[in-house]
Amino acid sequence: MPRNKTSTLQVLPTTGKVRWSQLAPFMPVSRETFRKLAIEGKAPPPIRFSLRCTMFDASECHRWLADPMGYTAPTPSTTPKA
Q: pTM for this one?
């Protein structure tokens, strides 16, 4: 039996990483609008794992959904990783 590629999640996970297809049913804006907001620092930034794999931090998406107008993206750490 072929697998359906659409997500069947009823609830957005609270932790971990999610793809846009899992996030889209919960978003009040389009993918392009969300992308523009992320560039401006007004939405969670995407995390690139590879050329074709982009994910979002689920906890940051919950923070954004709780207060879209007051959200500010976390600033990247300037401390070098050991």
A: 0.77
